[in-house]
Amino acid sequence: MQPFEYAAPASVDEALALLARHGADAKVLAGGQSLVPLLNYRLARPRFVVDVNDLPLDEIRVDAGRVRLGALVRHSTLAASAVVARECPLLTEAAALIGNVRVRSLGTVGGSLAHADPAAELPLAMVALDARFELRSARGSRTVEVRDFFSGYLTTVLRPDELLTSVDAPPTRGAGTAVEEFSRRPGDFALVAVAAIVTIDRQGRVENARVAIGGIDGVPRRIPAVENALRGEPPATDRIARAAELARAEVTPQSDALASGEYRTLLAGVLTKRALARAVSRAMAVPA
Amino acid sequence: MRMIEGGHGFAGDPRAVGGVGGHIGAPHSVVGQRVVRHDARDKVQAATAYAGDWAMPGMLHGVVVRSPYPSARIRGIDTTKAAAMRGVACVLTARDVPRNTLMTDVPGQTTTVGPLRAKLHVLAEDRVRHQGEPVALVAAETLEQARDAADAVEVDYEPRPGVFDAEQALAPDAPKVHDEGNLLAHWRIARGDVDAAFAGAAVVVEGEYRTQFVDSAYLEPETGVAWIDSDGVITIRLSTQVIEHFRDVADVLDVPQNRVRVIGAYLGGGFGGKEDVTVEVYLGLLAVKTGRPVKMVWTRQESLLARAKRHPYRLRYRTAAAKTGEILAQDVELLGDSGAYAYLSALVLLYSTVTACGPYRVPAARVQARVAYTNNPPTSAMRGFGAMQTVFGYESQMDRVARALGLPPADVRKANALRRGDTLPVGQVIETHCALPELIDRAWAGLGAPTPPRAPHAKVGRGLACNLQPYGRIVWLHDWASAWVGFEMDGSLVVRCGCPDVGGGQASSLCQIAAEVLGVPIDRISVHIADSALTPLAGTTTASRQLYMSGNATLKASGELREQILGVAAKLLETSVADVDLAGGEVRAADGRTMPLRQVLAACARMGVPRSHLAVYHAPAGEPVDLTKGSGKIFPDYTFGCHAVELEVDTETGRVRLLKHVAAHDVGRAINPMSVEGQIEGGAVQGLGYAMMEEVVLEDGINLTTSFASYLIPTTVDVPDVEAIVLESGEGLGPFGARGIGEPPIGPPAAAVANAIEDATGARVTRLPMTPERVARALRLLT
Question: In chain B, what is the straight-line distance between the N-terminal and C-terminal CA atoms, in Å?
Answer without folding.
Answer: 50
